[in-house]
Amino acid sequence: MKIRLEHLTKRFPNRNKKIAADVIAVNDFDFEIPDGKLIGLLGPSGCGKSTALNLICGLEVPTEGKIFFDDDDVTKLPPESRGVGMVFQSYALYPHLTVRKNIMFPLENLKGDQKLTREQMEEKVSEAARTVQIEELLDRRPNEMSGGQQQRVAIARALVKMPRVLLLDEPLSNLDARLRIQTREEIKRIQNATGITTVFVTHDQEEAMSISDMIVVMKEGVVNQIGKPQEVYDNPVNLFVAKFLGTPPINVYNGSIKDGGLYVGEDKVLGKDFVKDVKEQDVYVGIRPEGFILDDNMEGKKGALKAELKAIEVMGRDTSVVFRHAASDNQSRAIVTADNNISSSSDEIRFDVDPRKVFVFSKENEERLI
Ligand SMILES: Nc1ncnc2c1ncn2[C@@H]1O[C@H](COP(=O)(O)OP(=O)(O)OP(=O)(O)O)[C@@H](O)[C@H]1O
Ligand SMILES: [Mg+2]
Question: Does 340 have pLDDT greater than 70?
């Protein structure tokens, strides 16, 4: 089922009298979530992710705008009539109930012609438990399981009613690094297996990039960019999106467009083919870590960008080169293949840059220029 958001807005009244403006947690969301896909809703803490999810599931009422599930307008429907399964940021399981009872809970409250017999409930619980691979844990209680297992119980509980939409609010935040990776792959598998349209909220860009069919990057209630993870990474619309995606993060420099070229500080790194008709001005230049090229001798003695070498960290397949350039207050990081023999005795290092990995942003509004 597809979800359509039409000019969806949520304002919270500001209780602080000194600040007149309301908090606009979700500001004019206007896009469609395709049927059967997994969407990552991504942004920093406080940008409105949970609010957006709560609007979709019906726990919050929008100030303006509409929500459609396929062609049904669900804006005014209460949560229990929307057919959504939700896993909350703190996935509260009932501690005194067994896993079986936890998963069965949503089924026990069904009314009228939806009411199920005990056998039907048992059958559905088994099916949900099978999907998330916790059948052997059904008689345990939450405190007798690992975090990852509890997480899967929470997902099973959200799945048991066969929701039309699955909403997951930072479902991995309580897990350790390894379990996070395992569980996110698990979520992807479950989503693939069930084909349920799923919205997955996270502030972790790597998490969102790794499992989403499409990501929605938001900042302060406003959607900045929507697209396939790789497309957004390769083509960020503004500095915020460019900085938000990628580990290690993009390196940002003070630069300028002048004399038919792109300058990083005083170094002319790209020529007129790159800057084309963009007018002369001061800019921010963003260079992805993989966009730095060492010269043919692989010794870092040639190249347009001159920097001070700080450290070389070999990490298996790749080498991470840490350097400082006068046009940035921060240290920079380049990722090159480990075949490069960089002589660490030298203080200076030089790079050329790969134009596909270089983005130029306006200093005025931080929008992408090139
Ligand atoms: N009930 C409420 N009343 C007033 N303001 C609220 C309410 N709920 C959320 N907000 C505000 O709305 C904004 C968005 O909050 P929200 O919880 O949606 O952010 P989030 O992106 O989920 O953050 P996090 O990553 O920390 O969970 C914040 O500024 C928050 O303070
Ligand atoms: Mg939240």
Answer: no
